[in-house]
Design brief:
Blueprint: E1 16-19, H1 23-36, E2 40-44, H2 48-57, E3 62-63, E4 78-81, H3 88-92, E5 100-103, H4 111-123, E6 127-130, H5 138-149, E7 155-163, H6 181-197, E8 202-208, E9 220-227, E10 231-238, E11 249-256, E12 259-264, E13 278-283, E14 286-290, H7 297-313, H8 324-342
Parallel strand pairs: 1-2, 1-4, 2-3, 4-5, 5-6, 7-10
Antiparallel strand pairs: 7-11, 8-9, 9-10, 11-12, 12-13, 13-14
Helix pairs in contact: 1-7, 4-8, 6-8
Amino acid sequence: MDLKQIWAAPSKATPIIIIGAGGIVSDAHLPAYRQAGFPVKGIFDLDQSRAQEVAEEWNIGEAFKTLDDAMVYGTDVIYDLALPPSAIASVLNHIPVGATVLIQKPMGENFEQAKEILAVSRARNLNAAINFQLRFSPQMLAVRDAIEQGTLGDLLEIEVHLNVNTPWELFPFLKAMDRVEIAVHSIHYLDLIRSLVGKPKGVFARTMGDPRSPDMAQTRTTAMLDYGDELRCVLSINHNHNFGSKFQDCKFRFEGTKGALMTQIGVNLNYPEGEPDELWLATNDQDWQQIALDGSWFVDAFVGVMSNMQRFHIGEDQKLVTSVEDCIDTMALVEACFEASDLPSHKLPTV
């Protein structure tokens, strides 16, 4: 079956200025941009030595000494902000008015910060988008295309099941955060689901810690999104399954009246080495068949989201798919999940 898996490349590439030189930049952003042929003109980080190190490793033209130095190219470049969420709004106030800017997810640590980011983007007339790149992974572009073509019929089921052993020691900065699992991990799944089927009427959720990861506020989540009486949507997330790889998995299931799709998100298995992404399709008339994928979430999805930014910047795409105007609804959904988790459960009736 012919399904769209790649976001079209721009006819010409606009140079990129990266703000922030953390691990995600070297692990995903820069490999993706090199793969796509997107030129990186310069990089800035508060840790000047770190910026210089990354610049040398990736043959980046300039490691800026100050944030203001990084703004000298005005609106002739695309700014890629790879920053802690609490720092986003203040840095946006330095971005040239009218510029195009990609912001690392999440859109702030909480809904209040998300609204501030939205307000600053509007005030400075920024073409701002959030790097919710899972939407652009080859398998999820294919899922979207299949749903839009009507291959699954009326959608009845969306289920996310994750049972893995996440090496939280690789992310020490999370120890200081009050909100972890939904805010930095399952937010990707919530954003994807909302982008496919819209905002739910409400949510039921419980997110919690685990004694096997005592330094993390939450590493397990159960959530149900309320889409009425036809579409059932659930997430079951456990990052603490440390009993070997045999029963670890990370899957989406999309099921409708005419067919079903099963995906494997490989990067979460044996992280950070990962395993291949997979996509399988069955219909009322056809048994399960694997659909060959042209790439994976890491790093091809990072190519996709920047391709949309590049094309929008030169007028070849009519909208930013993950614009701040759109992604504020993802942040509202995340906030609703945390609020629902704080609510008391219903007591069992007494005899």
